[in-house]
C-alpha cells in the first residue's frame, strides 16, 4: 500500500480533484491551512489503506463518513482506490449541514463518481439505505459528533471504526473536583489536556467493551496539529463485560458523566451488555 508521503504526492499532483474540492494552489503554492488539511487527509488515508489491505478486496468495501463536511477524505480515498488500486468501494457521507451535503453531491457529479451518496442529518440518525457498512470514518467531527460516529459504528456492527476527534468539550468542566487527581487538574492548562486524554480513554474503553481491538496513533506530527490522534478500532469478538465495567469504573473514578453510553441508554455495564443496538 502507499505511504503518507506517496499519498501526498498523488493528491498534490491531481489538480482536478484538488481543485474541485476547493483545495487550490495560490501562485503555485498551497496556503498553510490547505497544506495542513491535505496532510491530515493523507495521514488518515495511509491508515485506512493499511486496514483495507486486510479486507476482502474482491468485494465492494462500503464506507460511512460521519460529519463528512466537504468529504475531503472520501473523495481522496475514492480517487486513490480507483486510480492506484482498482478497488471497488462505495461511500456514504452524512452531515448535519444541508449546504455541505449539496456541495458534496455537486462535486461527486462533476467528478463522475456514481458510488457516493450523501445525506443530511445527524450521524446517530443515519440508517444506511441499502448497503452494509464495513468501515466507519470521521475526521474532526466536532465534540460529541465523534461519539455519535463511534456509537453508530457499534450499532451497525462495522468491521472498523476509525475516528480522528476534533474539539473536546464534555469533560474539562466536570473534572474540577472530587477525584483522585485533583492536584493535577487544579491547573487549568493541565485540566484541559487531561480532559482530552480521559475522553479518548473512555471512548477506547467503550469500544473494547463492545468487542473491538483498539489502537491509538498519530496520523500527522503534533507540530502540524494537536488534533492528530486516530482511534482505530477493529471488531474482533462480542461484548466484554470486564471491559464495559472498566469504562464505567473510569467514569466513576473521575465522577464524570461521559455521554457515549447514552446513545445506548445504558447507565450500567449490564445495561450496555444487554443492549442490541
Ligand atoms: C470540523 S468539521 C469537519 C468536516 C470534515 N470531516 C473535514 O475534515 O473537513 C465538522 C463537521 O461536523 C458536522 N456535524 C456536527 N455535528 C454533527 C452531527 N451530530 N451529525 C453529523 N454532522 C455533524 C458539521 O456540520 C461539520 O461539517
Would you write up a description of this structure?
By secondary structure, this protein is α/β, with parallel strands linked by helices. The protein has a domain at 4-139: Vaccinia Virus protein VP39 (Rossmann fold), CATH 3.40.50.150. The chain contains 10 helices and 7 strands. The chain has helices at 4-13, 15-20, 32-52, 72-85, 98-110, 144-155, 182-185, 188-209, 241-253, 269-274, and strands at residues 61-66, 89-95, 116-120, 135-139, 160-164, 212-218, 229-235. The protein has a 7-stranded mixed sheet with strand order 3-2-1-4-5-7-6, sandwiched between helices. α6 (144-155) links the parallel β4 and β5 (160-164). The longest helix has 22 residues, at 188-209. The chain is globular and about 55 Å long. The two termini are 34 Å apart. The structure holds S-adenosylmethionine. S-adenosylmethionine is lined by residues 67-70, 72, 94-97, 100, 122-123, 139-142, 145, 148, 166.
Amino acid at each position: 500500500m502507499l505511504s503518507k508521503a506517496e499519498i501526498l504526492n498523488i493528491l498534490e499532483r491531481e489538480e482536478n480533484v484538488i481543485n474541485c474540492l476547493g483545495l487550490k494552489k495560490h501562485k503555485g503554492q498551497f496556503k498553510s491551512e490547505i497544506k495542513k488539511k491535505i496532510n491530515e487527509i493523507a495521514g488518515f488515508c495511509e491508515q485506512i489503506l493499511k486496514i483495507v489491505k486486510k479486507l476482502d478486496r474482491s468485494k465492494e468495501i462500503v464506507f460511512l463518513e460521519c460529519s463528512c463536511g466537504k468529504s475531503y477524505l472520501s473523495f481522496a480515498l475514492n480517487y486513490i482506490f480507483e486510480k492506484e488500486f482498482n478497488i471497488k468501494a462505495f461511500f456514504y457521507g452524512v452531515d448535519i449541514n444541508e449546504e455541505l451535503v449539496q456541495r458534496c453531491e455537486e462535486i461527486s457529479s462533476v467528478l463522475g463518481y456514481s458510488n457516493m451518496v450523501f445525506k443530511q442529518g445527524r450521524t446517530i440518525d443515519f440508517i444506511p439505505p441499502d448497503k452494509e457498512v464495513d468501515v466507519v470514518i470521521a475526521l474532526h467531527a466536532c465534540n460529541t459528533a465523534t461519539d455519535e460516529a463511534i456509537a453508530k459504528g457499534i450499532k451497525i456492527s462495522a468491521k472498523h471504526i476509525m475516528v480522528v476527534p476534533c474539539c473536546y468539550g464534555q469533560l474539562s468542566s466536570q473534572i474540577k473536583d472530587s477525584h483522585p487527581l485533583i492536584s493535577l487538574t487544579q491547573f487549568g492548562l493541565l485540566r484541559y489536556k487531561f480532559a482530552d486524554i480521559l475522553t479518548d480513554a473512555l471512548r477506547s474503553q467503550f469500544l473494547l467493551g463492545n468487542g473491538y481491538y483498539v489502537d491509538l496513533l498519530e496520523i500527522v506530527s503534533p507540530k502540524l496539529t494537536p488534533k492528530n490522534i486516530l482511534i482505530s478500532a477493529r471488531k474482533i469478538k462480542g461484548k466484554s463485560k470486564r471491559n464495559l465495567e472498566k469504562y464505567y469504573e473510569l467514569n466513576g473514578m473521575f465522577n464524570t458523566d461521559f455521554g457515549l453510553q447514552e446513545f445506548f441508554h445504558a447507565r450500567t455495564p449490564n445495561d450496555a451488555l444487554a443492549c442490541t443496538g
